[in-house]
Each structure stands twice: as C-alpha cells, then as structure tokens.
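Give me structure tokens for this 200-residue protein.
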Amino acid sequence: MEATRIIYDDYERTASGMVYVGKSRERTNLEKINRVKIFLLRLIEEEFELSFRSQNCLNNSGIKLVGQLVQKSASELLNLKNFGRTSLRDIEEDLKEKGLTLDMALNFFPWNGNDNGAELIRMLSLQKPGGGFLMDKKTAKEIGLDLKGANHTAGKKKQSVLHTKYLLDWLKSNFEKDIAYLTDLLKPHRIWLERNEITS
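Here you go.
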C-alpha cells in the first residue's frame, strides 16, 4: 500500500517524515518575473548609488522609478538639463550589474499603457526613500484627498503619515487585489507607517 503524500509548500510529508521536494520550474519562473516587476517599481534613489546632481536631475525630470529609467535612451538622458556623460556611464554600469539596460521596451502592466497603469506609476512615484509617501496638492485633489484637512497638522512627518495611510488604502482598493506582487512592494511602506504612527 502506497503511503499518503501531502505537499506543504516546498516540502512533502511522507511516512518517513518531511522531505524537501523543491519548487516547480513554473513557480520559480513566476517568482523571478515578479521580483523584476517589483524592482522596476522601486525608487531609483534607493536602488542606485547616483551622485546628488544626477539624482536631482532625474527627480526634476519626473524619472523616479527604475522602470521609467530603463525605458529612456542614452540620448534622452543626455538631453536632460545638467545630466552629463559621467552620470550616463554610472547609470549604464549600474544597470548592467542588475541585468538591465537603457532603451528597454516594457510590454506588461503597468508600463504598456493599458488600463490605469499610468495612474499606478504616478502614485508609486510619490514614494519617499526609506518608506512612506508624500503627495503634492494636485495629485491629492485628483484622487479625492482633502489636503487642507490632512495638512493642518504641523510637520512633514505627520503629513507623510497621513498621506501614506491614505495612499496605501487607495492602492489596496484600486490595484493590490489584482496585482499580487504589489503586496511585496508596499510591505516596507506598511512597516514604515506602523513605526511612524506610534511616534507621530
């Protein structure tokens, strides 16, 4: 009589105990793809060691996420004000180390222009290095947050806590239920919020 086999994640229970069976190739590939998708939605400022000048130049041009950067060509970056060849070389080397290049075509959500991907990219561009979000008045108005009420409290930290709380709820209701990997991307912001709600 064959022993009952029960699979628990990457382990299998047999009569002799728990045995590691490894992940399926399909599952491993999906996890790799999701890690790349998460990385593309992260802040350049947190993933690259750029000079202050280069980072400012990208921020001022609205290029804040890794996915926005990799879709740019070298000539597009060199056309940015105060962006020089040294900055370009640093970025190209850093991208190469991460298995990426400039001038990439991203043909998947949210980069493919379908549905409301541009809205997700815009909201994730509001991430702050180290955790949390901070919105400007225009963005807040577009998504229905009354900043007059939210910003009456003193200090950027308290504002950021309120903005982060609101945006995490908004992202959850609008995107997270359909995009599983978004939960992993937003986890550090939830941890940041928990820590800072206590201290603010």
